[in-house]
Amino acid sequence: MQDQAATPDAFWEEFYQTKRTTSTGQPSKTLARFATDLPPGTALDLGSSHGDDVIWLASLGWQALGVDISPVAVGRAARRAEEQDLSDRARFEARDLSVDFPAGQFDLVTAFYFQSPVHLPRAEIVGRAARAVAPGGHLLVVAHGAPPPWANHSQSEPFPTVESELAAAGYNPTDWTVVEAKLVDRPAKTPSGDQVTLQDTIIILRRNSAG
Ligand SMILES: C[S@@+](CC[C@H](N)C(=O)[O-])C[C@H]1O[C@@H](n2cnc3c(N)ncnc32)[C@H](O)[C@@H]1O
């Protein structure tokens, strides 16, 4: 079992110091599929980890901000942006989004697997994220729809469904257009190398200009 008593900042700092120390350098598949043809604007990524998605957006001309609770992850992301000469467009901030959400509105707000085995008021933060989307902009949220079969931990909230994601975002058809809202299979490998199928929820909403 994970240490359910760990505070979120201590849990994630330890995670990045000891467990996740590298990244693929590749953007999330759903982001690459959806955003490649979007006109660049301003973007915010929640739980930005080592910054792959923010750096990819910046390489396409976006002004992108990544926020993560782990200063170690944020430091690595900022260094990688600098190495790629993208630090003028890829910025990173260490914040606990449950208490401190960036001000302003963004043309694209993303969250990829923004989930946690320790305290995370995720639905509340997804709602806050939706309110940070500028008119005509998009909210893109991808989440584990179920725990991986090999995992022995829970997370602080139930695994999301498409319906619960739309509800968390405050979806209503007057203010939003649904671009995608679905449960998809994702092939993956277990830590011992066996092939399995995981399930992800994906919601992509566009804020109506008059909304
Ligand atoms: C499961 S990881 C996903 C990381 C990355 N988006 C990805 O797709 O690989 C969840 C991320 O959310 C961050 N996180 C967890 N709780 C947070 C909070 N309250 N505020 C900001 N970031 C948080 C963690 O540090 C971690 O980087």
Automatic annotation (TrEMBL):
SUPFAM superfamilies reported for this sequence: S-adenosyl-L-methionine-dependent methyltransferases (SSF53335)
Keyword Metal-binding recorded: no
GO BP terms: methylation
Phylogenetic lineage: Bacteria, Pseudomonadati, Pseudomonadota, Alphaproteobacteria, Rhodobacterales
Pfam families linked: Methyltransf_23
InterPro entries named in the record: Methyltransf_Superfamily, SAM-dependent_MTases_sf
Keywords, ordered alphabetically: Methyltransferase, Transferase
Source species of the chain: Paracoccus caeni
Annotated transmembrane regions: none
Top-rank taxon, per record: Bacteria
Protein name: Class I SAM-dependent methyltransferase
One MF term in the entry's GO annotations: methyltransferase activity
